Amino acid sequence: MAQCVQSVQEFIQDSFVPMVAVLCSEDAERVTRKNNLTFPELLRPFCRLTSEGHLRDPNNQVVVVKGLRISVTGISTRPPQTPELQRLLSQAVSVCQPPEGSPANVISAGDYDLNISDRTVKASVPWYSDWKETLTQLSSSKYYTATTPWFETYRENFLQSMPASEHEFLSHYLACMLVVSSHEAVPTEEFLKLSQEQHRIQHSGEYTHPKWFIPNTLKYYVLLHDISDGDEQRADSVYEDMKQRYGTQGCYLLKINSRSGSTGADEQMPDPWSQYLQKTSVHNPELYDECAVNNAVENNIGAEEDGLDPSVRDTDSISETHPLQLDQPTDAGYPSNNPINSVDVTKASLTSHSTPTPRGTCLTLNDHDHIRQFIQEFTFRGLLPHIEKNIRQLNDQLVSRKGLSRSLFSATKKLFGGGKVPEKSIAELKNTAGLLYPSEAPELQIRKMADLCFLVQHYELAYNCYHTAKKDFLSDQAMLYAAGSLEMAAVAAFLQSGAQRPYPAHYMDTAIQTYRDVCKNMLLAERCCLLSAEILKSQTKYSDAATLLIKMTSEDSDLRSALLLEQAAHCFMNMRSPMVRKFAFHMILAGHRFSKAGQKRHALRCYCQALQVYKGKGWTLAEDHINFTIGRQSFTLRQPENAVAAFRHILINDSKQSAVQQAAFLREYLYVYKSMSQLTGESSLPQLPLPCLHSSQTRVFFGHERRLAEGEKQAATHVSLDQEFDRDLSQMWRELEERVVAVANRGTVPVTFQPSQCCLNSQTDNLRYPLAVVEEPIIVEVVFRNPLKVPLALSALSLLWKFSLKDFSGSQGGTTGDTITNEKEAASLKETMALNDVIETQVIPEFNISPEETKVARLKLLPRKTGELHVLGVVYNLDTGEVGNSEGSLPGDLVCVRGQQNLEIQGPRLNVTKEEKTSVKYGPDRRLDPIITPPMPSLEVFFINFPTGLLCGEIRKAWVEFVNVSAVPLTGLRVASTHPEFFTFGSAASDLTPVTPTAAEHCSAYKTVSMPPSVATVSLVSPAAFGVTSGDRPMVAEIPLSRGVLGPGEALQIPLWLRGPELEGVHEINFLFYYESTEKTAKLSHRVLRHTVFICASRSLSVRAMASRSNTLHGGEREKEGGRGREEKNGNMLVFVDVENINTSEAGVREFHIVQVSSSSRQWRLHKCINPVGEKDSKLASRERGKLCFKATRCRTEEATSDAGRKYTFADLNLGNEQIVSSTTPCADFFFRRSLSAEARRGGLSAGGASQMRRHSLAHQNGTDEGVTNIVRKCSEVELDIIILWKAYVVEDNKQLILEGQLHVALQTIGKEACSLSQKEETQEMVLLKFKPDVPPPVSKPSLEQLSHLIKTCLHYPESYDHPFPQKSLCMVPVTLTLSNCSLAKVDVIIDLRHKTTSPESLEVHGSFSWLGQTQYKLQLQAQEVYMLSLKACFFQAGVYNLGTPRVFAKLAQTSAMCETSQQSAMPALIIINSV
Q1: I need a surface site. Which of 227, 360, 844, 898 has the fewest CB within 10 A?
Q2: Between 1089 and 120, where is the model more confident?
């Protein structure tokens, strides 16, 4: 139980005190009324004795009476009515509320910190965020209980208002004070009248109330003298007469009113009566306190008074049937189900006590002492001797019983008029009405003696008497009397000092059960329960006390049940191991019963205390119920803020309630909210809890929404809110933008560069203020989630913003103007032109959210002025989204409320500095705070005839249109792409005809001339003409504009050539268009437009090519080329091209035609076609392969001028009658834009070239070896690119289309095959992590294969030779061995003519001829020198011979340590020797 101010001993002693009646004359009443008090009220603060009293028991032992209190009350002959008693008790509890501002108490129980003291209503509600600051930890004990003064007040009033009963005498009057004023003419006559009146009341039999303890009641005569208005001498003389008449111990002269009410009014006197008279007592029912009356009105719980709509109640099941309600039938024996609202409170009573009445104004401190002395005299001289005398008399009667048997004593009682009711059946005897004792019955005399002993604290004798009486009553089956004796015997046993015997709790249990079940008297059972629970609590038997209190709850009295359940809950908290959940559960039950009893404030307090346990533990249904009840009670008590907050808590959590219940919660919340807003009348909009607003997922888009495709026009995709954010893509766009910005700013990225971000979200970099442009919309995408199972209807949804005007035209960052906000306009739903001139705000009229749906709303702002904008939140009307209101429900507009939610976004956590790493700090998130900049140009790009699918290498011509949709001219238009090899706008010198897409519909994408097949057409082209300057691909292309400017509203159409990617599959290709304003602004330097296309590439042709040295030099050609110089002699090469149709039939391609083969190189060019011969091009059907062979020669000297080293020679060999000029757009463009893999391959990285370059930086000391390697490598190196131009015939929709394209093959090394399809790179093996630097690898020497290409050999001889062998047996044929030095250094050559026999077959072939002359030659050839060595072969008979037997060894002259390497042998040189 909760802690009480009194100890349990003091409580019990004060519960049973001697009762003294008062009868006053009218004059005496008038004297006391000067102090606004009745005589009993005047005495009440002084009724506790400050000194000890003494009396002797029948054994002549002195009994010490300590702290005795007497109860002095006026006589009322009207018995108290039960409804009136219940009303007064309810009122007493209502008045006693927790005082504000007292220190809070904390119970620490396990994981819970519970505040269950006076600030609980504020401290435990879920919205009271800082409640812990108000708590103070108690140090006196680990578990501390809060006081419950309302329970003590109830208990005190209940015990005082207990009606006197026949079976006990504790509340019967022991004495009567007869009070007469000294003003009376004949005071003795007044005393006589009062004495007769008392006798009539007690003995006439007319009155059943009040009850008198013994027939001979003590009469005490009091003469009341008014000092301020009376004759003191007369009073003294009357008192002397009284002493003679009544004795000195039977009368008293009380002098009061030492001052008049008017004199000394300024002097502040103590008021000891306030603490007693504020408590409503049954003995003065005419007194009400103002707060009690007000509380009665406050606690009126009628549906009309609490402001809740009846339809809300009807649809709300939770308010009708409590989930924890006890379904028990009401006991008719305790008619107390009258809540306080049944009291009719009149207006007069409301205004009767507007100011507190001062009491005791005529009394001085001496008067207080007089009254205190009077009480002491009365008690010690009158009351205690009277009690002592009566105890002795009763004891004498009991002593006469000793030694007599029970049966004999019973017979004596019958003989001597013990008038007992005739014997009844056992069943009837169980009832209290079945047996009544007369007042002279010996059993009752024992009970009287016991009660007298108990009242004067002689507990041992009292216990013995109670115990004796109990036995007698039980034997007579007088259950009511027996229960009373059991109850008092248990209390007396407990109060005995020295604890001679343990507390007999079973006595109390039996008494309670008898009162409740047999006697049907709940009042006595309740009193017994209250006493026993206090005793058990004092013995720390909290579990037993709680069980006892819970047993006493029933449906007959809600107030009693509520108070007892609350005390039981406190018992659970005071156990050795606090049972926190039981505490909370019983507090809920108590709160419910308080509510039913009309005690709204106490109900609210109980629910708030229980919420501390239930909240945050996952018991959502219980938490919802508690919050719902708190909301309703708060609203009833005119606390709308708390009510709104409690309902808000129900709605913001993920509720597990049914849809019907959630709808009821929502309607109730809206109704309460609307009522609160009407009461407060504030213009600012409060926060709404629904729907949930995911602020961090808010996205902001700057700029116009892009137009969709119009017919054949396809608009640039740019950025939109429908696209998902991809971090890798975002980084790619940033790199593209940096690249184009660097080109625009002469190669460097400015320090102030800030990448363009059109769409901001939680993953973008939001540390800087974003830049928006005036007159361009800002779209804020807000994510709403409906956590309920019922739909929500939002209307008039718009953004709240704050805007600071700022002019950025000045040089100093701009001047700041006024700050404007739309909060007032949004709250009142009124639009003003002044606001629209600054920022136009879009309003969404209706926005419905389905149950448990997450939905986005896109809200638009259109800034009209420059400045700084801050988006604060959203404002909207909230309504239930139910379609078609049911009968009796509210119209939609009645529960539609307007409110707002703030958009508060937490920035990213900072984690750079040490301080940031060791603490939790967050950076800003500026996505909702854009800066509105001056006007900027806005570009839209459209693509015309843009394909979605291409063959690999296919060339297609499309058109692109640039439109300036702003009012500002734009300049500096550039485009960058991730795939520059995919497109070209053509070179600056390219012919742009035809000028429209329709005119170019059936034209070839290439520039063609009519020319029959012949020797290759040659042209020189500089890479700079096609945008290639540094050897790298042109990543950024500048788009030419007329006069360099695209004006407002102007459009420009230019052609665009596309080439299908070389690998099949779907390719994502990104374009970034960059442009600037003609007027430079400090805030926004440029703008970009993004476009992404997906191209599906299908297989076309696979081309393989290989170069090999030409072994023959025809005589005629040798003569023609004789004048070219020695270095040109070895300038021939054969190129073999193998083309295969690998296209699948799905693409609809019928056949491919190889229409032309072109070459591009700095050193080589194709010269003529060897195979096929003729004018027809090569046709390839599906899976067919064709072989082509070409002769290539070195470029001429005049083609290799000083700057020709940077120029490329294009040679075209057309196989049909039409020649494509490969050195113009688009063929040359795509050649220069070919993919980097080809560049890498052609960069001489074959055969260890890359490692050679890497090693070059590591080992400078090996410079000689490096030179050797380079010289050797260049012998076999070729820089020749082959361009295969083809046409494909496609059948589509019964029409034949001709597609055209080109493929590139890069030849790098003689004898090595190159392919148009890049081979898949092998996955690199995982490299072990090394912590030490590698030792530089040794410089590798040239491989044998490379060294075998130093010298090219060729034999010149007649193909057939006729010789008359019969005449001459030896045939000698002249043979010329031509040696060509392929390197750029001197080479030492050894020629060995001796046969090297390796097999018998070779012996047969070679053994029949021999070389004449020297068998070995040693020569040194200069760089690129051609040397002819004349030899003679000797044949012995006719036949076919292979002359290719000379072995040639060579080494570089500058390397002495290197051995000669055998050179590649020439092709078999067959000669036919004929015999004639």
Answers
A1: 844
A2: 1089
Q: What is the pLDDT of residues 31-58, one digit of tens each?
A: 999 888 999 999 999 999 989 999 998 9
Q: How far is CA 860 from CA 315, 871, 926, 929, in A?
A: 39, 11, 18, 14
Distances (CA, A) of 439 to 21, 419, 442: 20, 10, 9
HEC per residue, 433-479: HHCCCCCCCHHHHHHHHHHHHHHCCCHHHHHHHHHHHHHHHHHCCCH
Q: How far apart are the first and last CA of the chain?
A: 145
- Of the listed ranges 382-391, 954-963, 1420-1429, the least confidently predicted one is 1420-1429
Of 820, 859, 819, 815, the closest CA to residue 836 belongs to: 820
List the one residue out of 747, 739, 718 whose CA is nearest residue 976: 739
Give tens-digit pLDDT for 266-307. 566 778 888 777 554 444 433 333 333 334 334 433 333 343
Residue 1305 token pair: 């093959």
Measured CA to CA, the distance from residue 819 to residue 805 in angstroms comes to: 6
Alpha carbon separation from 1011 to 1008, 1018, 1218, 1225 (Å, rounded): 9, 13, 5, 19
d(CA 562, CA 602): 9
Contact predicate 1056/985, CB 8 Å: yes
Burial of 1034 (0-12, 13-18, 19+ CB in 10 A): buried
Amino acid at 820: I
pLDDT for res 531: 93
Q: Name the nearest CA neighbour of 391 among 65, 850, 15, 872.
A: 65
Question: What span, in angstroms and rounded, lies between the C-alpha atoms of 728 and 636?
Answer: 58
1439's tokens: 């036949």
Could you tell me what percent of the chain has a pLDDT over 70? 77
522-536, 654-668, 1204-1218, 1338-1352: which is most confident = 522-536
Q: How far is CA 786 from CA 619, 660, 1323, in A?
A: 21, 15, 50
Model pLDDT, residue 588: 93
Nearest to 1062 by CA among 926, 954, 1143: 954
**What number of other Cβ atoms are within 10 A of residue 1295's Cβ?**
7
Tell me 598's DSSP state: T
Q: Which parts of 539-637 fold into alpha helices (H)?
A: 542-551, 558-573, 580-596, 600-614, 620-636
- pLDDT tens, residue by residue, 760-793: 999 998 889 999 999 999 999 999 999 888 899 9
Residue 1009 has pLDDT above 80, yes or no: yes
Residues 388, 61: Cα–Cα separation, whole Å: 11
Least confident segment among 423-437, 666-680, 931-945: 423-437
Query: Which residues lie below 8 Å from residue 1033, measured CB to CB, with a gap of 6+?
Result: 980, 981, 1232, 1233, 1234, 1236, 1239
Q: What is the pLDDT of residue 997?
A: 57
Question: Residue 999: how many CB atoms within 10 A of its CB?
Answer: 10
Determine the Cα angle at 28 with ends 22 and 29, to 5°: 75
Beta bridge partners of 976: 1036, 1072
Cα(805)–Cα(868) distance, rounded to whole angstroms? 7
Angle subtended at Cα 445 by Cα 440 and Cα 446, rounded to the nearest 5 degrees: 150
Q: How much is the pTM?
A: 0.70
CB atoms within 10 A of CB 761: 18
Backbone angles phi, psi at 365, to 5 degrees: -65, -30
Which whole-number Å values give the CA distances from 763 to 726, 753, 913, in the listed order? 9, 20, 22
- Structural element, H or E, at residue 149: helix 149-160
pLDDT digits (tens, 9 = 90+) for 550-589: 999 988 889 999 999 999 999 998 888 888 889 999 999 9
| Alpha carbon 1033 to chain centroid, angstroms | 49
